[in-house]
């Protein structure tokens, strides 16, 4: 016998070192994780296999995502610094360290975005006869036509705002696109008695009107366009007769947009929200200044100081300053430059001519949007509005869109004498004004409207229909991961369920009683409700899989979610991984869990799906 082999066989297997599950070193930074998500959006634009106008769309989404990131997340970090809050993030970074890291990671991404736009997308669009033509390259006839358009449609709505001792620096609204220039007195013109007013050079700001198209067709019916900013700059002398105008430069400002609603002090949350929105438009603090790369340093310094920012808050853009304006090009009828349209389907049970409620009594129907036509949802709610046997409709509305057929069905149901209750979440970010308008219209039609719950944001998407059948009341429910918004339903992947299940219906009744009347049901039959029992139930399910694995049973965790930031859930997943449970996570956006760390998360795999549709469904297996 080989003595070496015998010795080796006798040695016990060395135990694997397990890392502490609550160590902040094993968490990613939330803000940087989000930036990596947005990098994946940019990569869709960089992909040559993506149809050309879709690449333009992803460049635009990258920019609008960043706008929201600065308005909410960066503004929050700057506010922490201003208030002297020194608390570190869960991964151990101060607010200032996070801002520094954001800038360092973001600037190369912005440069890559501009290279993609100017070196690839715009040249290829030009090859397909969709052209942005610099004003200086237009012929005399085209310039004359655009000059006439300027004088008729743009000049009357422009307001030049000079800066001096009697004209303070003007308020620059959030996400507005502006022109800055220096105007000088004409030495060859006699200003007479007003000579004293025209001795000095002045900085002038001109806001480009948001209600005027940013891309202007050079000739009607053609796909050649001039940029509004260049058209104004080329004709700016009309605004300053008998003055000398210098070169124009574009700049764009981003302000804080995170509403701080003091609900404890609000007598009427709707009116309080309206006041906060008005106050925010006027007084929200600045967080980012974007300027054209050719803007002189002196002008940048004066803008930065006047607005109240620092050099670190300035982003010099080598190219187009507001890419979402280019989405006008996406509306051009060029199907060869876009994704092929999908074929919407209707589940077989719903294709029958019978009453939808009779169908749901026989079976549940699972909906997978956008592949399942969203008419399956709007038809269900409209059928409830029309059905003479329906007694009540209750619904949670988070984001509904500007022209919602669902809201119209609810108003119709109320006019027909049905009991209709709608929880309209006024705190749905960036949809506050839209939801306020719908809430008022619903109230005017007799609908019982609730404006969310104090201290909570109601994110549920649920409809309850109560119907009289043979002397009894029966409940029908629609549950979904997606908003009641037919527009976004075409570009988001979401799941929905139509059901007549008795226990789900009873749970839905309890849920609405909680939302509208503050009844506090803690025991639900089928539904899992946050913040009542969702986290606890998820922890139980993760622990169950851990115990199953340790006892030799089959164990597996598969989850599809928007983001993962909850500390307790992450620690439970780390524990499950350490026990040997295989875990697959599909996380579209922020994920602060770090996979693949030996002794902690080597059994966890995380992927992100970013593509044609916004992955919005949540699945737990």
What descriptive keywords fit this protein?
single chain, alpha/beta, polyphosphate kinase like, Endonuclease, Chain A, eight-stranded mixed β-sheet, seven-stranded mixed β-sheet, 15 helices, 22 strands, 18% strand, disordered N terminus
Please identify which CATH superfamily of the domain at 150-325 we are dealing with: Polyphosphate kinase middle domain
Instruction: Tell me the helix content.
Output: 25-40%
Nearest-integer average pLDDT: 92
Structural shape: globular
Rounded to the nearest angstrom, the distance between the terminal CA atoms is 51 Å
State the CATH architecture of the domain at 150-325: 2-Layer Sandwich
CATH class of the domain at 150-325: Alpha Beta
Brief overview:
The protein has 621 residues and is α/β, with parallel strands linked by helices. It is built from 15 helices and 22 strands.
Layout of secondary structure:
Blueprint: H1 3-10, H2 30-46, H3 52-82, H4 95-127, E1 131-132, H5 140-154, E2 160-163, E3 177-185, E4 202-207, E5 215-217, E6 224-227, H6 228-234, E7 243-245, E8 249-255, H7 269-283, E9 286-292, H8 297-307, E10 314-317, H9 356-362, E11 365-369, H10 375-386, E12 390-397, H11 405-415, E13 419-424, H12 432-444, E14 448-450, E15 462-469, E16 472-480, E17 492-499, H13 502-517, H14 534-550, E18 557-561, H15 567-579, E19 583-587, E20 604-607, E21 614-615, E22 619-620
Parallel strand pairs: 1-6, 9-10, 12-13, 13-14, 17-21, 18-19, 19-20
Antiparallel strand pairs: 2-4, 3-4, 3-7, 3-8, 5-6, 8-9, 11-17, 12-15, 15-16, 16-17, 18-22
